[in-house]
Design brief:
Blueprint (H helix, E strand, L loop, with lengths): L1 E6 L17 H10 L6 E11 L3 E6 L4 E2 L3 E7 L2 E11 L1 H9 L4 E7 L2 H4 L11 E13 L5 H5 L6 H8 L6 E11 L1 E6 L2 E6 L3 E5 L2 H8 L5 E8 L6 E5 L9 E7 L4 E6 L2 E8 L8 E3 L5 E6 L2 H11 L13 E10 L13 E11 L2 E6 L6 H7 L4 E2 L5 E5 L1 H9 L7 E10 L11 E2 L4 E4 L5 E4 L4 E2 L10 E3 L8 E10 L4
Antiparallel strand pairs: 1-3, 2-31, 3-19, 4-17, 5-6, 5-14, 6-13, 6-17, 7-12, 7-15, 8-9, 8-13, 10-11, 15-16, 18-30, 19-25, 20-24, 20-31, 21-22, 21-23, 21-25, 26-29, 27-28
Length: 491
């Protein structure tokens, strides 16, 4: 994992307003009731407008990922995504290969049609056409007994992933493949249907790999890695865990009579690598679980609460004078520094660090909806939405922090890019079925017609694999806003 850290000095304050729950009294009472709290509680707010982080760390997640269900291959948003596949080749096949005259080898990957055929896929994504240069590297094992060949399938993914972290290929070569992905109308059983022009990527393997295999006999294990660092897109394909028969390693032994052999992949993994070098940047990527941890000092928070209560805060081990019903951190952001493929806002998930049995643990925050605000201006916890700020809820973490603030601890939170949001002003925030057939206006301005009984998705089922630059956190202070509740009439 790569780690980037900075230590901050005070900067000029930039006020970022936050209007969460700035509603009328009846609206607030209704919201309290939704959260299981009495509507008779009095809610007061405290804002700390000039909160400068003391440090931040980016943890880039470039470890191998399981591609048993789905994998990705290609490049986007500063990352290159490789695929590594594992095959068991038997002695009968290699004997036939050694006697073949002009054999050719292919890797066959089936595209995830539910992605490329999705009603929610932006209209400008397809068609995709490009010539992709693949770097192919491989490892061919020593001779294996029949029992050891069969044991390849029992190798755990975790053990295989560990070996992939230090990939040392025996040989490598290049090959170029012309990718063409588009849709067409076809008639199936008298009905017109829209399908992909070709859902299979049939990538010809370099001759050097074929010749290397011809030199071997007996049972062998082949591990194959493809990289396309200069591709213009990423390609999403089904892994070997699906009912489909792909990915497949295909060897055509004789083109004249169609003689060929295919082997299904035993394991599949995607490995991401960073193509950027910026030691001072705070860049998160979606789809690979990068995380950004931000640490705030306790002193300005305690000072604001002391001024609010009129005496020193905290003054005891458990100084909970009022219940924290909501805590929110608002950061300045600049969408122009990011890059994405799908052109939808992307949700930023937040988590806090809490004590549990004297051990600090990270807990994902439960997102509470402010329906009035969402209906008016959309969800506040997104990037690529055209706004210059992002608001993240840290309620659970702030409760724990205030309960234990007597020891002088700092407040730490984490953020991570999540899925794209298709309906940015949807106040239900869950997928559901269309009862009458709905025409939906999506977050990117496009409209989509959902047939009766079809699924209405609030978030896109697939990651965007986008890139977002949060470096502005270093020099533009955040705002922390607390909503504190007590029984009405009591101070």
């Amino acid at each position: 994992m790569n780690k980037k850290k900075f230590i901050l000095l005070p900067f000029l304050a930039l006020f970022l307003s936050s209007c969460l729950f700035d509603t009328d009294d009846d609206g607030l009472s209704s919201w309290l009731s939704d959260q299981g709290m009495p509507g008779s509680y009095k809610v007061q707010t405290v804002s700390i407008n000039d909160l400068n982080p003391i440090s931040a760390d980016v943890f880039m997640d470039t470890l191998p990922k399981n591609a048993r269900s789905r994998g990705i291959l290609g490049a986007t948003s500063g990352l290159s995504h490789d695929v590594v596949l594992d095959f068991g080749l038997d002695s009968v096949f290699l004997a036939r290969l050694s006697s073949a005259k002009l054999p050719k080898s292919y890797l066959k990957l089936q595209l995830v049609d539910s992605y490329y055929m999705s009603d929610y896929l932006p209209s400008d994504i397809l068609p995709i056409e490009e010539d992709v240069k693949f770097d192919v590297s491989w490892i061919i094992s020593e001779k294996l007994s029949s029992s050891n060949l069969n044991k390849i399938t029992s190798i755990t993914d975790s053990a295989w992933f560990h070996d992939l972290e230090t990939w040392r290929p025996q040989k490598s070569a290049e090959t170029t493949y012309s990718v063409s992905i588009g849709k067409k109308d076809t008639v199936v059983k008298g009905k017109t249907q829209t399908v992909l022009v070709d859902s299979i990527l049939k990538i010809e393997m370099p001759k050097a790999l074929v010749e290397d295999l011809r030199k071997n006999s007996g049972n062998r294990r082949l591990q194959l890695r493809l990289s396309a660092p200069n591709a213009e897109h990423i390609y999403r394909f089904y892994g070997p865990g699906n009912d489909l028969v792909y990915p497949r390693f295909r060897m055509e032994l004789n083109n004249e009579n169609g003689d060929y052999v295919e082997y299904k992949s035993v394991h599949a993994s995607s490995i991401s690598s960073n193509r950027e070098d910026c030691s001072d940047c705070l860049i998160l990527h979606s789809g690979i679980y990068d995380s950004l941890v931000v640490e705030f000092p306790s002193k300005p928070i305690m000072k604001a609460l002391s001024e609010f209560y009129g005496d020193e805060f905290p003054y005891s081990d458990e100084d909970v004078r009022q219940a924290v019903i909501m805590a929110q951190v608002t950061f300045y952001k600049d969408d122009s520094k990011g890059s994405q493929e799908l052109n939808y806002p992307i949700i930023v998930a937040s988590a806090s660090f809490e004590d549990s049995a004297d051990v600090s643990v990270r807990r994902v925050e439960s997102y509470k909806l402010d329906k009035d605000r969402i209906a008016k201006s959309g969800h506040p916890n997104t990037v690529f939405d055209g706004r210059d700020s992002i608001s993240l809820q840290v309620t659970s973490g702030m409760r724990d922090f205030l309960n234990r603030a007597h020891d002088g601890r700092t407040f730490k939170m984490m953020m991570r890019l999540d899925h794209s949001i298709l309906l940015d002003k949807d106040t239900l925030f869950y997928d559901r079925s269309s009862t009458d057939g709905d025409t939906l206006k999506l977050s990117n301005g496009e409209t989509v017609k959902i047939s009766k009984g079809g699924s209405i998705y609030v978030t896109f089922p697939y990651f965007d694999y986008a890139r977002y630059d949060f470096t502005s956190i270093k020099d533009k202070p955040a705002t922390l806003k607390l909503w504190l509740a007590s029984k009405r009439g009591e101070e």
